[in-house]
Each structure stands twice: as structure tokens, then as C-alpha cells.
Request: fold
Amino acid sequence: MNCIQSLVCDERIMRKATVHLPVMVDKVVDYLVFNKKGVYVDATLGCGGHSLEILANSDAFIIGFELDKKQIEIATKRLSEFRKRASFVHGNYRDMEKFIDKKVDGVLFDFGLSSYQLDDPERGFSYRKEGPLDMRFGEKGVTVSDMLEESSEEEIADILYYYGGERASRRIAKKIKREKPKTTEELALLVRKTVPRNKAHKHLGRVFQALRIAVNDEFRNIEEGILTASKVLKEKGRLVVITYHKDEEKLVCKKAKEKSLKPLFKKPFKPSKDEFQRNPRCRSAHLRVFEK
Reply:
């Protein structure tokens, strides 16, 4: 991709990101900012979709955390109308305690990928778009390509099985070590050749999910994020968490229970049929609300 193509592609993705609807935003506003004022942490700022709705529907102040510099740039422009009530930190949410000197009224986590990340082929998150095997949320650390090169066949198989529930993990891992894929297209073709054709998309989803979780150390981040959130929350403060697969959700519930964060509802909220029609990517989302 030349420089002009790259700029055009980036501009298109940015436009798409600014119109993408945040998941279950009404529930987030209703249960996180229930008193319509106070200080809140958007621990997974992304392009600012949830923060925008919170700021537009309350007198709250938002502190947003994001590893991706480009997404902070988008969020800064998107929330410019509310710049006096918003502050952004380029960093990992598990370090939020270092940047917050007073207790906050609520913390939001949305553990899904943003449209900006998914739609940018250079990030390597999607098996539908050709790009490098990167998948990092930020700019630091090893890429998926590096991880596959440095890991043994057994280690790759364990990653695919434990982080993605992939039953063909050993066959796929063996081919990865033999063929050494360097791009998303090469990896996707390798998986398609290894599994039944009519179920390839499900296997691809699990494989890409597992590699993304591993390279970003997501489960450890979630554990430390919930722990840190419990420390910065006021008494009666709210924790709202959106997860996208059962292992994330189990981990969140486990850590919340350990920190005596009380669930306000027995069952998670799910997107409505109307929201699913507008945004099919939200189909697996579960939203849970906890109180300190």
C-alpha cells in the first residue's frame, strides 16, 4: 500500500469510527451515571463512543484510558464540545490508580474491539482483510508474527485451545510452525485448509481471538483492571463491564466477587434485536453492573 492509498484508507476508517454506535449505550448511561454527575473512568476509551453519550446526557467528568494513540486523536476531536469535562490518558487501564488522585463514581470497561481497529487492515485483527500479523492494542510488545515465531508448536496449540476453545488447535499449530504465516491472509488460508470448509469461519474466529488475547495479555489485564477499579471506586460507586465471550465474563465475575463488588442484577443485559440489526458485531455482548 503506497502513502496516498494509506492516507485514504486511514481517513475512511476514521470516518467510520466516528459514526459507529457504542454497544448498549443506553444501559451504560442509565446504570453507570445514575445520578447524572460525578467523575467516571472510561477505561477502554476507544474512539470515545460511550464517553460521548455519557457527556451529552449528564454533567459528568470523564477520564479516558487508551493504548492506541490514533484512537485518542479521534476521541479528542469527537469530544471537543465537552473538552472541559474530559481528560485522556495514553496508557493501560490497569495503571489507572497512578493517574487518579481521588475516588471516582464509576468505571466502565468495554472489552470489545473498536471498528477503527477491526477495519484497519494494517492492525491485523481481521481475517477478512489482508495485513500483517500484528494484533497489538498499542505500539509496544511483540506482534502475533513474533509470538508465533518464538513459540513452540505445543505452546501455540495451548494458546489456541485455552484462549479460543479451538479443538483443532494441535493440527493448526503444527501447520503454523511448518508454513510460518506472516500475514492475516496466509494464516486464514492455512486454517481454512485444516478444518471443514463449512465451519471455517467459526474456526477462524476462535484462532484470531486466541492470538489477540495472548499477544495483548488480555486476561491478566482484565484481572488487574478489575482490581484497580475496585481501589479507585467510591463506596456505592458503579462498575459497568461489557464482555464478548464466556471466559472474559467468568473472569470478570470472579474478580468482582473477590473484591466484594456486588452484582446489581443476576443476569447480564444483552443487546436488543434492533441494536443487533444496526450493529451485528454486538451479538455476543453481555453487560454486567456491580456496586462497591
